[in-house]
Design goal:
Length: 624
């Protein structure tokens, strides 16, 4: 009997020790999590006011290299603070849950062991049992409350920290483009042809009788529903690679990769004097999407909270050929979603395959029209659940329209039949919100559709949607799209890192860097070099294969537009409308800095020896 009693007592003491250790362990992590929450609320981990003050001083003294280095170091410290806090919150929550689980198991063993102990004095045992029961109850209630509070604070801290850094990124992007709430009428959309010898551009507000005729024609057109045409799709109802390369069909051109194949591109113009400005025309509704081109037609989209439109202009004259309305769409929400001013209701760039034109908007409406503006099909994909507004651009592939739909709920990538709008495939994605756009890549053995969003870069078969490979390498709410060249894909995001990945069934990270990162502009690459652009005005050239930094150039203005390589030159438009043109080489060589005369955040399009740029209000055609 004594041996049995001794054994029971030893077991109880063992599990009591484990319970005490687990309780202390859990208590410590509860205190740390609550302290972390208090610290985040008491002290701004990003210190955006200090950063903004330094940036303002740097604007006043752009040649102060010491001040510029202070800004860079502060930015690096902010990133480290972000990652440290994220690590503490995530791992602290996990450790707390492990500690609580061990405590519960220990208490359960104590209860079972105590049950088997022999009763010496029933009266004393009953009183002791009741006392212990009450004590356990209040300890359990107090401990559970503390754990619940700590886990709640961990969740709040993580979201609050993410929001703080999102706001910091917005604050750091100086001179953010203001939302244009005005809606020009058709009467203000007549192109202004500018003679090369003119010293002053003509005022675009002057209308002509021809323009009034266009407006009247638009008013007398049938509604889009009545214009719906039956698709006549065939097995070859898509363009060849040569056709795609000779046009500019997507955001960042052919395959969405930032490479233009056009020749005889101008390097000199002036929007104020009219030099090499062949025409400019007002765009009726505002939008941040970039122009796309097929043949002699150029397409852009515009929208506000109540109206969504697609515009087609003549590439040679700037004349508005037609307007297609995205209205009367089944499933379309009655109220437009809330969007940020620097995203708007029409941020995604149109895509065209030369047979039809495809546009998507912030409310999830997607529309296909033929090359004459007649509606072919339209549907609503559901309102994208994100806090900035949807901005992932469309891309086409062999009779398919592909949509990257990395929303907060039900993130996925899907493809629709370009002739009918029927869903061909849809692949769920285990990712967070993204604003990046897809790219299409031929690796030499197969076509691949590549996407980026936290936590990974992933590749899919564009014909079937089957995932080919994935590699975890990125974090945050990703804005920049990928760049690809010679078997290597490049991914980056602010407060994360820049990764160079050798593609294949088992992708391999070649190198990584975190010195200069982008929150908006996408990188561009050749087989030798990678060019990274930041929204705060820094451009860096790296060796594409090993990550060696060749040069860093800091400009006085920031960039939202993505760089395009054409004829061995990089065309990069800053937010004030100045095009920075420099060699795509290991040594920085500035070629020209022509001015548009209007602010812009859109990526230029190239065709037939001309450049087309969307400004805040006008669409420009630049040529020799």
């Amino acid at each position: 009997m004594n041996q049995t009693l001794k054994k029971y007592i030893e077991n109880v003491r063992l599990w009591q020790g484990i319970a005490i250790a687990a309780g202390i362990f859990s208590f410590v992590f509860c205190v740390l999590i609550i302290a972390n929450f208090t610290q985040i609320n008491r002290v701004d981990p990003v210190n955006t006011k200090v950063m903004n003050a330094l940036v303002e001083r740097l604007k006043e003294n752009p040649n102060d290299t010491q001040l510029r280095e202070e800004v860079r170091q502060l930015d690096l410290l902010a990133r480290k603070a972000y990652f440290t806090n994220q690590w503490q919150i995530r791992n602290g929550g996990y450790m707390l849950m492990i500690g609580v689980l061990v405590l519960i198991i220990a208490l359960q063993f104590i209860r079972l062991a105590t049950k088997e102990l022999p009763v010496v004095n029933p009266d004393v045992s009953e009183k002791l049992f009741q006392t212990q029961k009450r004590a356990r109850f209040w300890v359990s209630v107090g401990g559970a409350s503390l754990v619940v509070v700590a886990l709640a604070f961990a969740f709040i801290s993580k979201n609050q920290l993410k929001e703080t850094f999102s706001q910091a990124a917005i604050a750091k992007s100086d001179d953010a483009v203001e939302q244009n709430n005005t809606t020009p009428t058709q009467e203000n959309s007549e192109p202004v042809k500018i003679e090369e010898n003119n010293t002053t551009a003509v005022d675009t507000s002057k209308s002509t009788s021809a323009n009034n005729t266009v407006a009247a024609t638009q008013e007398n057109k049938e509604t889009p529903e009545e214009q719906t045409v039956k698709p006549t799709a065939t097995a070859n109802d898509y363009p060849s690679d040569n056709e795609l390369k000779n046009n500019f069909p997507n955001f960042r051109g052919y395959a969405g990769n930032g490479i233009a194949f056009q020749k005889n591109i101008p390097t000199s113009w002036d929007g104020t004097t009219g030099q090499n400005i062949l025409w400019k025309v007002a765009i009726p509704l505002h939008g941040y999407n970039s122009p796309v081109i097929w043949g002699n037609k150029i397409f852009v989209a515009g929208a506000n909270a109540t109206k969504r439109e697609v515009y087609c202009f003549d590439c040679n004259t700037g004349k508005l050929l037609w307007t297609a309305n995205a209205d009367n769409i089944t499933g379309s929400p009655a109220t437009a979603p809330k969007v940020q001013g620097d995203t708007g209701h029409s941020a995604p760039t149109i895509s065209t395959d030369g047979r039809r034109v495809y546009a998507i908007y912030a409310n999830g409406d997607i529309l296909a029209v033929d090359m004459n503006g007649n509606r072919v099909w339209a549907k609503n994909l559901g309102v994208p659940q994100n806090h900035y507004g949807h901005s992932s651009s469309l891309i086409t592939y062999k009779g398919l329209v592909i949509v990257e739909f990395d929303s907060r709920t039900n993130p996925r990538v899907l493809a629709m039949n370009s002739s009918t709008g029927d869903e061909v495939w849809s692949t769920p994605r285990k990712v967070k919100i993204s604003w990046a756009s897809p790219i299409l890549v031929n690796t030499g053995s197969r076509d691949e559709l590549m996407l980026v969003a936290e936590p990974s870069v992933a590749s899919y078969d564009p014909a079937t949607g089957k995932q080919l490979w994935s590699i975890d390498c990125i974090s945050g709410e990703v804005g920049p799209s990928l760049a690809y060249a010679d078997g290597v894909v490049f991914a980056l995001n602010e407060y994360a890192s820049l990764s160079a990945i050798k593609v294949g069934d088992t992708p391999e990270k070649l190198w990584e860097n975190s010195d200069y990162l982008s929150d908006v502009p996408s990188p561009v690459a050749t087989d030798k070099y990678l060019f990274v652009v930041t929204s705060y005005g820094t451009v860096v050239c790296y060796d594409a294969k090993n990550g060696t930094s060749y040069w860093t150039k800091e400009f006085s203005e920031g960039f939202y537009s993505s760089p395009i390589i054409a004829e061995g030159r990089i065309y990069l438009l800053d937010k004030q409308g100045v095009m920075q043109i420099f060699s795509a080489d290991k040594e920085f060589k500035s070629i020209a800095q022509p001015k548009l005369g209007e602010k812009s955040v859109c990526t230029p399009a190239f065709a037939n020896g001309r450049i087309y740029i969307r400004g805040d209000k006008n669409l420009y055609c630049i040529g020799k």
